[in-house]
Amino acid sequence: MEKIPILRMGEFLLVTIQVDMHDRLAMTLQDDLTNRISETGAKGVLIDISSLEIVDSFIGRMLGNIASMSRVLDAQTVVVGMRPAVAITLVELGMSLEGVRTALNVDAGMELLRESMDGHEEMEYGRYRH
Amino acid sequence: MAVIATEKVPVISEADIVTVRRCVRESATKLGFSLVDQTKVVTAASELARNTLIHGRGGQMELATLNGPRVGIRLTFEDKGPGIPDIELALRDGFTTGSGLGLGLGGAKRLVNEFEVKSRLGEGTRVTVVRWK
Amino acid sequence: MATILNHKTSNLGSIIANHRDAILAGWLRDMIGSTRRSDLIREAELQGQCGHFLSLLAQATAQSTNPQAPVYDALREMLAEVSRTRAIQGFSAQETAMFIFSIKQPLFTAIRESLGKDSLAMAEEMWLTTEIIDSLGLYTTEAYLKTREETIRRQQEEMLELSTPVVKLWEGILALPLIGTLDSARTQVFMESLLEAIVQTNSKVAIIDITGVPTVDTVVAQHLLKTVTAARLMGADCIISGVRPQIAQTIVHLGINLLDITTKASLSDAFSVALQRSGFRFVRQQKKDLSEERER
Questions:
Q1: pLDDT mean over B98-125
Q2: Displacement of CA B42 from its chain's centroid (Å)
Q3: Count of C-beta atoms within a 10 Å radius of residue C145
Q4: How far apart are CA B45 and CA A5, in angstroms?
Q5: Cα angle vertex A126, ends C246, C186, to 5°?
Q6: Cβ of C199 and A104 within 8 Å?
Q7: So what's the pLDDT on residue C1?
Q8: N or C terminus of chain B: which is more exposed, having fewer CB within 10 Å?
Q9: Nearest to A94 by CA among C24, B115, B44, C177
Q10: Does the beta-carbon distance from B50 to A58 stay under 8 Å?
Q11: Contact C80 B36 (CB under 8 A)
């Protein structure tokens, strides 16, 4: 069965989702990621969904689960590259993906991860302190 | 209302949900839906197909292209499952923060223009939705 | 001898076949005048449409006299197409409807010639024909109206898009003034513009200025919330500026929960916050340094 590749980039893991995943593949990704974080002691996970044309509630929940589980393993997750049409649809569906940090692209996502690791003010979802 | 074409897709396994998405996407593209509308109707189809599979224990989707006077896509999801005990409740799922086990009906309803659900306990459920171009 | 009419089917099919040319000529002739609009449609095209319609009508009536029957689907499809193109071409509703209704006279003439000796059969046939043509005429008008509505809606959307200017205030900082009431249709257009702009300019902060929004109630707040949530899902944050004291009061009064969205009264305050968040800092140079620079 196909697996979604998980790349290691230093202390971070990078996952690029390019296929229209069926549910089981999504669950496998969840498991694989959690295992890899544990194995490598990665501090951050970057999930690139810029190729995804559809994100339904199942995938949305998967992203939320990955973020929660990573946090338990002391790693931050950032989802990057969500397309405008997808964002509009998710909001209409009623999913706000609270607890999942997002960034425009991989570069911005990396920056976010690095910042949070450097001990800068932990940027919680949507909350800024100034 | 003129129905141009109909297509039946079985919804019996997880892979079928992907097939459903692909079919609806193809239809929407062919009819010239805007990108956002395409995304909405395909996502709605995905939600409803999953419902049919998981709660309805499998069934089928019928895709009809409508062309007269308005252009649109009509999807009918049918199953012979246990039925929905409280439709009102199922529709009132509100904003899920990701942990909801809701039937996704409420969400799908917001993504389409017309929505109808018929269900009988012990007999099955039929959800019909239409997205106009 | 009286012709026994089969009430399930009409003789219209064979009548049309026998008198086709006369009906066609009569129909086209009746359309001359205010409804002809030769400026909008060419003779050849019109003849083609009429001929096609007659053929379909003959086919359908041979099988059923009930205009709602499925055998009439092809006719309705053709009419829907005709109405749609006419609506887009600029015909009026009446001109479009007359396309159908003006066929009655030539049809009646043909019926009279075929069944003139049997007044009962003739009356029956004319009645059936009237029912069918009226039903098709109404359908045509309905289709025409739907197209006009769609066209108007699309034009409104385009106007809305034009009225949503996006201003790039700084690297990664956008400003979008919202002007007018925010209903769900406008919200969709606004959201799309905002999100597209965020992607194209790679902006992390978007300032939504609502100075031009007259009232903010629960519904408007919900629409704003949706927009901000969508932007966040993409990785951009929003600041709402132009929040007048009255709006602040309304928000508190109605118990609207704006979550943790930052709101500012003025655009410049919002800009200041945006710059901070983006990691920019502006330093005012001392006058002494400036004059030294100039001397160099």
A1: 81
A2: 8
A3: 15
A4: 28
A5: 55
A6: yes
A7: 38
A8: N
A9: B44
A10: yes
A11: no
Topology classification of domain A6-117 = Transcription Regulator spoIIAA (3.30.750)
Residue pair C247/A109 in contact (Cβ under 8 Å)? The answer is: no
* Percent of residues, chain B, with pLDDT higher than 70: 91
Q: What pTM was computed for the model?
A: 0.70
- Tell me which H or E stretch contains C212: strand C205-212
Residue B99 has pLDDT above 60, yes or no: no
Mean pLDDT across B3-22? 92
Residue B87, pLDDT above cutoff 70: yes
Report the alpha-carbon distance of residue A66 to residue B3 in Å, rounded. 43
Domains defined for chain C, CATH in brackets:
12-158 (1.10.490), 167-277 (3.30.750.24)
Q: How many residues does chain B have?
A: 133
Evaluate whether C126 touches C108 at the Cβ level (below 8 Å): yes
Q: Is A82 in contact with C260 (Cβ distance < 8 A)?
A: no
Q: Which residues of A touch C (CB under 8 A)?
A: 80, 82-84, 86-88, 90-92, 96-97, 102-105, 108-109, 125-128, 130
In C, minimum Cα distance to B66 occurs at: C77
Sheet holding B59-67, edge to edge: B3-11, B59-67, B71-79, B124-132, B114-120
Domain that holds residue B65: 3-94+102-132
Could you give the angle at the alpha carbon of A56 between the alpha carbons of C201 and C227, nearest 5°?
Answer: 40
The span from the CA of C68 to the CA of C234, in Å, is 49
A96-114 in b/e form (b: 16+ CB < 10 A) is: bbebbbbbbbbebbbebbe
- Residue C238: count other Cβ atoms within 10 Å of its Cβ: 26
Which string of b and e fits C4-30 if b means at least 16 CB within 10 Å?
Answer: ebeeeebbbbebbeebeeebbebbbeb
Strands in A76-80's sheet, in edge-to-edge order, are: A6-9, A12-16, A44-48, A76-80, A101-103
Helix (H) or strand (E) holding A38: helix A23-40
Cα A2 to Cα A18: distance, rounded to the nearest angstrom:
12
**Tens of pLDDT, residues C137-154:** 899 888 888 888 888 888
Tell me the domain boundaries of chain A.
6-117
- The arithmetic mean of pLDDT across residues C197-218, rounded, is 90
Closest chain B CA to residue A94: B95
CB B37 within 8 A of CB B133: yes
CA distance C31 to C41: 12
Lowest mean per-residue pLDDT among A97-106, B32-41, C185-194:
C185-194
